[in-house]
Structures are given as structure tokens and as C-alpha cells.
């Protein structure tokens, strides 16, 4: 559900004369003006020595049980590179050796009936040592698949499906 459906009155003056105008909430009573921007998120492409891509299986909704890429939201005052490093440590217990920017995709991520507009920024990461690999945090399991064998319809999030498809095209 779009965020505008949850705002019934102005949070500053409580007037109901608040309107969502394409990108921002504007109150015609008190001038309250609040912008809704895309939330930055990061997704990471990791391959093993055989060239197989690491996919995670989502532990929670939205899209519980579907394939995903490791990653998550960028915290306030965090760089996207730090978010990639942090998420890979939290979700997979791996240390990134190097990062290379790949592409970005917009997405809508619905959580507890609120639509969040995200911008997924994608990196290819090199990992020297896979021995500490664990499925932690919001990851229920991990698979490595040859790009040729990936069924993109098993990926839940629209942007991740587009990213993995673009990656498959780039290596085939
Ligand atoms: Zn107001």
C-alpha cells in the first residue's frame, strides 16, 4: 500500500488538508512539506572458483522461500560499499576482498503493508576464503548455481530477477 494511504492528517498541525503530490506530502494549513525518496539498498554478486553464482534463500516475507542475492538496506550515514561489506559479513560470515560496481535497479519493497521505493545498487564481490560461509540473519540457506542453470522465475523480488538476468547475459 502506498505510504499516502497511511497518512490521514498532517503530523505537525493535525489538519486533514494534507496531500501527496507525486514526491512529497504537503499540508495546505501549516506548510509542512515532507519528501519521500528512494531508499538505498545493496545487492552483491558473488561467484565461486567454478563460476557459480551465490544465491540466498529468503527466510522471511516478503517472498519467503524464494531465491535472492545477499544484501540489504543501506543504513543512515553509511556508504553503499560499507553496507555491502557489512551485509555479506552479517548474512554469510564472509569477508569481501574487493568490490566492483555492476548496475542499479529500482524496486518496490512492501513491508507490513507499506510500499518502500528502493534503489538496489549492485556490486560484484571477490571472496578469497569461502570456508567461514554460513547462512545467517535473514538467509535460510545458500546455493551456488551455474548461470546457465539459474531459473530466474524462482527469484521473488522484481529488481533481483532483473539483476540476475543481466548478470547471466553478461557472462554467457
Ligand atoms: Zn499541517
TrEMBL record:
It holds the Pfam family NUDIX. Residues 37-170 form the Nudix hydrolase domain. InterPro entries: NUDIX_hydrolase-like_dom_sf (IPR015797), NUDIX_hydrolase_CS (IPR020084), NUDIX_hydrolase_dom (IPR000086). Keywords: Hydrolase. Coiled coil: none annotated. SUPFAM superfamilies: Nudix. It comes from the Bacteria. One of its GO terms (molecular function) is hydrolase activity. PANTHER family: ADP-RIBOSE PYROPHOSPHATASE, DIHYDRONEOPTERIN TRIPHOSPHATE DIPHOSPHATASE. This is NUDIX domain-containing protein.
Amino acid at each position: 500500500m502506498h505510504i499516502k494511504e497511511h497518512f490521514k492528517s498532517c503530523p505537525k498541525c493535525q489538519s486533514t488538508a494534507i496531500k501527496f503530490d507525486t514526491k512529497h506530502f504537503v499540508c495546505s494549513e501549516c506548510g509542512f512539506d515532507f519528501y519521500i525518496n528512494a531508499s538505498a539498498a545493496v545487492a552483491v554478486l558473488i561467484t565461486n572458483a567454478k563460476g557459480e553464482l551465490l544465491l540466498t534463500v529468503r527466510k522471511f516475507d516478503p517472498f519467503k522461500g524464494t531465491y535472492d542475492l545477499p544484501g540489504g538496506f543501506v543504513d543512515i550515514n553509511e556508504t553503499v560499499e560499507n553496507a555491502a561489506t557489512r551485509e555479506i559479513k552479517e548474512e554469510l560470515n564472509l569477508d569481501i576482498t574487493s568490490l566492483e560496481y555492476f548496475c542499479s535497479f529500482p524496486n518496490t519493497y512492501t513491508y507490513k503493508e507499506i510500499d518502500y521505493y528502493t534503489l538496489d545498487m549492485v556490486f560484484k564481490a571477490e571472496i578469497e576464503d569461502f570456508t567461514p560461509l554460513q547462512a545467517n540473519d535473514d538467509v535460510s540457506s545458500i546455493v551456488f548455481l551455474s548461470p546457465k542453470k539459474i531459473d530466474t522465475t524462482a527469484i521473488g523480488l522484481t529488481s533481483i530477477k532483473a539483476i540476475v538476468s543481466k548478470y547471466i547475459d553478461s557472462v554467457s
